[in-house]
Design goal:
Elements (H helix, E strand, L loop, with lengths): L1 E10 L2 E11 L3 E6 L6 H9 L6 E6 L9 H4 L2 E4 L10 H8 L8 H10 L13 H14 L4 E5 L7 H14 L5 E6 L11 E6 L2 E7 H7 E6 L2 H6 L2 E5 L2 E7 L10 H16 L4
Parallel strand pairs: 3-7, 3-8, 5-6, 6-7
Antiparallel strand pairs: 1-2, 1-4, 8-9, 10-12, 11-12
Helix pairs in contact: 4-5
């Protein structure tokens, strides 16, 4: 689906990527995690063809994004973190833009708008930031592109809207689609993504599937001093110490994505040792 080979990219003299390699497949929801300013948005824009690599290659379903061919553009949609929508109604947004996406589904768009509880008669400029974002998410999903890129999609959404977002995204995936969600709000992606890719300073620190993570790592609360000392990562909690350790006995524990993220940012070598 997506193949990134030896990607180099800079903003003038600021190097962002220096030989980045990454492969992503259809049928999965990927979580692209990292602090603000670490290259997540830049990577999405290189994949979508809005930015061009200095060197290296990116292909999406055999197409080169920077060529901006119509056959590519109709199969990719990006929900940007910062966006501008004209002062029109959602129906007019569909009227003027859906024609560029051959697989756009009007019934789906109406259903998503209803699930997000968006007032369809209001013009977009009279909506809140969160409502505007939900209109854009609804439109992007209804385009049914094979590749959907989402940059900080939960920014501006309240707790209920984030829950609705997770439900809608989970229901939209099929074996022909690839969804990449970039965020620094790690908790928002729990129970949604299939694979985690963590970027920091333009480098991939960690890249594993959820299945691999739960097979190799164990997440639990411990009161045992020796177990806490031997853990790959630990932090104080109200009920004891939350720890990450190697899953040597094949126990099934619930993934704590936020704690895993902090562990990798703090000292990824300890976490990576469980996968070597």
């Amino acid at each position: 689906m997506i193949s990134i080979k030896n990607l180099h990219f800079s903003y003038k003299r600021k190097k962002i990527f220096n030989g980045l390699n990454l492969d992503l497949q259809a049928g999965y929801i990927y979580g692209l995690l990292g602090k603000n300013g670490t290259g997540k948005s830049t990577l999405l824009r290189n994949i979508s063809g809005h930015l061009f690599p200095d060197s290296g290659s990116i292909t999406v379903s055999g197409e080169t994004p920077q060529k901006r061919e119509p056959s590519f553009l109709q199969e990719v949609f990006i929900v940007a973190e910062e966006f501008f929508l004209p002062n029109i109604t959602p129906a007019q947004l569909v009227k003027y833009n859906a024609v560029f996406y051959p697989k756009f589904n009007h019934e789906q768009f109406s259903r998503y708008m209803n699930e997000f509880e968006i007032p369809v008669d209001n013009t977009i400029q009279h909506m809140s930031y969160g409502q505007k974002k939900k209109v854009l998410i609804s439109f992007g999903l209804a385009c049914n592109t094979s590749l959907l890129l989402m940059d900080e999609p939960t920014n501006g959404l309240d707790i209920m809207s984030k829950s609705q977002f997770r439900k809608v995204i989970a229901g939209a995936l099929d074996e022909k689609k690839c969804i990449i969600i970039s965020t620094h709000q790690v908790k928002d992606l729990e129970n949604l993504i299939d694979r985690i890719t963590i970027i920091d300073e333009g480098k991939i620190l960690f890249d594993q599937t959820i299945e691999q993570i739960t097979q190799k790592l164990q997440f639990k609360i411990s009161f045992d001093k020796e177990e806490i000392q031997q853990a790959l990562y630990n932090e104080d909690s109200l009920k004891g110490n939350a720890i990450i350790s190697k899953n040597v006995n094949g126990e099934d524990t619930r993934l704590d994505l936020e704690m895993l993220y902090k562990a990798i940012i703090t000292d990824r070598t300890k976490i990576q040792s469980a996968f070597n």
